[in-house]
Amino acid sequence: MDKVARLASESTDLVSFWRTSTEVVSPVLPHWWAPCFFTLDPASTLVTSHFHEGLDEFPADALVAEYYGNDVHQIVDVVRSERGISTLHEVTGGDPSVSPRWHFNLTMGGDQELIARLRTPEGETWGAVSFYREPGAPMFDETDKVFVERLTPYLARGARTALLFGEAIDPESPDAPGLLMLNEAFKVQSATAEAARWLEELPDGDSARGRLPAAVLAVAGAALEGRPGAASSAFARVLSRTGTWMLLHGALLEGGDGRRAAVIIEPAHPARIYPLLMSAYQLTERERDVTSQILRGSSTTQIATELHISPHTVQQHLKSVFDKTGVRSRRDLVGKIFFHHYEPRFRDNEHRVLRDQPVRGGPAWEFGAPGRNVAASI
Q1: Each residue of 203-225: pLDDT tens digit?
Q2: What is the DSSP letter of 366?
Q3: Strands 36-40 and 47-52, bridge-based pairing
Q4: Which of 3, 8, 231, 321 is spaced 20 to 30 Å from 219 by Cα?
């Protein structure tokens, strides 16, 4: 367990993190073929990428079934469940043959399926992982589930750090994170242009004199400690000189150049899905809030409680959202947003993995990114 925790506190690319974690987990948790790792957008819990060794392209039918199919044990169901982990056999009462998902898995050689949510201790869901076992293999039991549960916070933290690291070294947006590399003497070895920009926003630093802000030094120090428990302290939230909040993340790098701290600096901006909903569909701020809750699987009562409005008002907002987005149900709303704004990201990430490029998170950056009209074929 400590080895996975250590991996999560280091800075690496996402695919390397998944592969190394699999090497650590496999002797303890026997499984068929390879785990399937997914990243999710914490703001919507919609899938942004997958990695399954030997499966470069996720089957289109399985992706459609995930968001439009009437089945059990979908990723979204597990992610939104109280425990955040379950097996296909248990949710079908021991008869997985009633599930189309089981029949699909069987065509690929799998019988049992265990899915677990990847959530950080801070409560953000950054992904999911599924393990499989072939027909005739021992059943996943409570011991297996407890082991995976203990792993998931570290897998979530590692995924978050890897996505941030990837965006910092290969920026996509105008407000992309910046990356700063410090050695054990806290001397800057390299910095991206974005890092230099954000350093100027932080208080108590003086770039002309080579003095780093205190928050940068604190986060770098926590990362260089390299202890599994240090990951939570390798983070800071700082009010900038201009009155906006900045987030700092520290991670450890070890290699031929010795131990180094990677410090990622980013502005604390709203999740990309929020302005996207308002710009792409002309939703009001309240309609956006309702839609965001729908994407995360909240019921009418839960939305009313969260937004401090009546259930009737929730329904009125939802009717307006349906009209503006051209859908007739909550499932269609989630499916449309996924296939129009997340599926392009999902498929692009498959190509990026094959080209050894960093995996990206969140919805496609461009509003109106083309997605296939899958609803018309269902």
Answers
A1: 988 877 889 999 999 999 999 98
A2: S
A3: antiparallel
A4: 3
Q: Is 95 helix (H, G, I), strand (E, B) or coil?
A: coil
**Rounded Cα gap, residues 211 and 26, in angstroms:** 45
Q: With CA atoms as reference, report the closest residue to 217 among 196, 201, 233, 232.
A: 233
In angstroms, the CA 264 to CA 176 distance is: 10
The SS3 of residue 307 is helix
Residue 5 has pLDDT above 60, yes or no: yes
pLDDT tens digits, one per residue of 36-60: 999 999 999 999 999 999 999 999 9
Q: What is residue 32's three-state secondary structure?
A: coil
| Claim: this prediction has a pTM higher than 0.70 | yes
Average pLDDT, stretch 167-192?
92
Among the residue ranges 3-17, 19-33, 65-79, 326-340, the one predicted with the least confidence is 3-17
- The answer to whether the Cα torsion of 144, 82, 362, 191 is positive or negative is negative
Q: How far is CA 301 from each of CA 77, 304, 331, rounded to the nearest angstrom?
A: 18, 5, 17
Vertex 207, ends 204 and 209: CA angle to 5°?
A: 95
Q: CA quadruple 200, 261, 127, 293: dihedral positive or negative?
A: negative
Domains and CATH numbers, the chain: 176-267 (3.30.450.20), 273-377 (1.10.10.10)
Task: With CA atoms as reference, report the closest residue to 260 among 221, 231, 229.
Answer: 221
Contact assessment for residue 8 and residue 154, using Cβ atoms and an 8 Å cutoff: yes
Contact 46, 342 (CB under 8 A): yes
d(C-alpha 83, C-alpha 9), whole Å:
24
Strands 245-255, 112-119: pairing kind? unpaired
Q: Which two tokens stand for residue 230?
A: 């240090």
SS3 call for 205: coil
Residues with Cβ < 8 Å from 178, sequence gap 6 or more?
A: 168, 191, 192, 193, 194, 195, 196, 197, 198, 199, 264, 265, 266
Beta bridge partners of 130: 36, 115
Q: Which residues contact 101 (CB under 8 A, 6 or more apart)?
A: 65, 71, 72, 73, 74, 88, 113
